[in-house]
Amino acid sequence: MMNALYKTLLAWVISFPLYAFSPAVVATENEGIKTSGFLYGLGLGVSTEIYKGYSTRVMPLPLIGYQGENLSVFGPFVSYKLATLNDVTVSAKLSPRFQGFEASDSRIFAGMAKRNSSLDAGLSIDYQHNDWKLGFSSMFDTLNRSNGFELKSSIGRTFRFGPVFLAPSMSVSLLDKHHVDYYYGVSVDEVNQDRTAYIGDSALNKSLGLSVAMAIFFGGFTRLNIEYTWFDKNITHSPLVADDTSLSLLLLFTKNF
User: Fold this and answer.
1) Model confidence at 31: pLDDT above 60
2) What percent helix, strand, coil does the chain show, rounded to 5?
3) 194-212 burial by CB neighbour count: b if 16+ within 10 A, else e?
4) What is the pLDDT of residue 215?
5) For 138, how many CA atoms within 13 A lie in the half-sphere containing its CB?
6) Rounded Cα–Cα distance for residues 78 and 249 (Å)
7) Which of 19, 43, 162, 209 is the most buried (most CB within 10 A)?
8) Percent share of the chain, pLDDT over 90
9) Do the beta carbons of residue 240 and residue 184 sit within 8 Å?
10) What is the average per-residue pLDDT within 22-50?
11) Is the dihedral of CA 98, 8, 215, 24 positive or negative?
């Protein structure tokens, strides 16, 4: 169970990258807060699960990473800028996908084959002009767990109120049928009195988010992220799923060495 909790929080970390809105980063640099180089800190995450039998997850996590001109490393998540043209940036990304389950995680999974985490790789294209940011990414399973992919697009805007930055955003995520079937499907061999056979199909999830960031505590960078996600019916109709929405919160404090 602790392993599953750890995976869940790491998923929150990659869902809410620390330097997603550079206007806030630039402003903190101008005010004498260092935002490049090696960093360390702590995170606390809370999230609701949509699988049956899963409760709210709460767990602290130590953080360490590096922010350079082109290279960003945040724990096991890596991003490297390949090209920049005016307001458009193309980056290569590598990120573990901490998703899945094992029989001990919930009664609903008893007798099912373990669904493993994987390693995703792909490209992202970001357009940023003033306080607006548009993003598109394409990530593929490189370890042949699900053999699936995810396409994601997002839009956000940063507002500044003195030392506080607010960044509302919305995004849509397309998961292909292989991904959905692997993590939410039930094979014929896994059918029992609690679950019927289910073949997953591609799904389009929608999310609204809000990030609150400030650089006023202890010479570091504090950020609170909130995201509410609506899951596609091709996920929520799975006999493994109890809810069609989830809420995630992540509080981060980081400071450069």
Assistant:
1) no
2) 15, 50, 30
3) ebeebebbbbebebebebe
4) 80
5) 3
6) 22
7) 43
8) 49
9) yes
10) 67
11) positive
Q: Please give the C-alpha separations between residue 157 and each of 19, 32, 70, 160, in angstroms, as whole numbers.
A: 13, 23, 22, 10
Q: Give 234-252 pLDDT, tens digit per residue.
A: 999 999 999 999 998 888 8
66 phi/psi in degrees, rounded to 5: -150, 135
- Cβ contacts of 40 within 8 Å, gap of 6 or more: 62, 63, 64, 65, 254, 255, 257
Distance between CA atoms of 22 and 155, rounded to whole angstroms? 14
Q: Which two tokens stand for residue 241?
A: 């799923």
Which pair of structure tokens corresponds to residue 210? 């809000």
Q: What is the 3-state secondary structure (H, E, C) of 201-243?
A: CCEEEEEEEEEEEECCCCCCEEEEEEEEEECCHHHHCCCCECC
Spatial separation of the C-alpha atoms in residues 117 and 8, rounded to whole Å: 11
pLDDT of residue 44: 84
Q: Which has the closest alpha carbon to 155: 104, 208, 108?
A: 208
> For residues 92 and 142, what is the distance between their CA atoms, to the nearest angstrom?
14
Q: List b or e across 36-61, with b for residues whose CB sees 16 or more CB atoms inside 10 angstroms.
A: eeebebebbbbbbbbbbebeebebeb
pTM of the model: 0.83
Q: Please provide the size of the chain in residues.
A: 257
The answer to whether 127 and 87 are in contact (CB under 8 A) is: yes
Residue 13: pLDDT band (50, 70, 90) is very low
pLDDT in tens, 122-157: 999 999 888 899 999 999 999 999 999 999 999 999
Quote the pLDDT of residue 34.
52
Please state, in angstroms and rounded to a whole number, the distance separating the CA atoms of residues 8 and 221.
23
